[in-house]
Amino acid sequence: MNEQTFRRLFHFCKDDLPVLVEALKIQTIGSSQGVTGSGEEALLMGLRRLAYPNRWWDFEHIFGFPSSALSNIVSQLFHYIGSTFGHVLMDVTNHSSLTLSDLEQFSEVSTLFAHLRNCWGFVDATARPICGRTVNQRTYFSGLKGSIL
């Protein structure tokens, strides 16, 4: 797959994938259906799911796995990342690489460009509807006219 197609599908640079797999220490992940995916495959599945939230069966032709296995592998991947690196997000003020000035800069960007006050970013820079007009409407209403995000 060429770089342009890869970038369009995963919102990520192809050359950065092995670096990210190594940094996140992702090993082979197996599904409860007996299907296994390499660390790179699992990360690609997760990145694709985050980049554009298709139905699982839409991914079957991309990855060659049944939708139930895709769902299981990505769930295990996100659980692994959360349990291994979740502490990094729990207290963003407790990191030597993230200074107070960095947080202030991120906050300024959020204030200038974000329509949602309780959201710090979008995976693909697009806000998408997440619920129906009657389900959790008050909880998820963003304030944007005509949309529940």
H/I helix tally: 7
User: Which descriptor suits the 3D outline?
Assistant: globular
Read across the widest sheet, the strand sequence of neighbours is: 1-2
Detail the poorly predicted runs. none
N- to C-terminal distance: 33 Å
The total number of structural domains is 2
Report the biggest beta sheet as strand number plus sense, adding barrel if it closes: 2 strands, antiparallel
* Estimated share of beta-strand residues: under 5%
Structural class by helix and strand composition: mainly alpha
Element order: H for helix, E for strand? HHEEHHHHH
Give helix % range: 40-55%
Mean pLDDT comes to: 77
The count of DSSP E runs of length 2 or more, i.e. the number of strands, is: 2
Gyration radius, in Å? 18 Å
Which descriptors apply to this entry?
2 domains, two-stranded antiparallel sheet, mainly alpha, 149 residues, globular
Describe this structure in words.
- Helices cover 53% and strands 3% of the residues.
- The protein is mainly alpha-helical and 149 residues long.
- It folds into two domains: 90 residues, no CATH class; 55 residues, no CATH class.
- A two-stranded antiparallel sheet has the order 1-2.
- The longest helix has 24 residues.
- The radius of gyration is 18 Å and the shape is globular.
- The chain starts with a helix and ends in a 9-residue tail after the last helix.
- The mean pLDDT is 77.
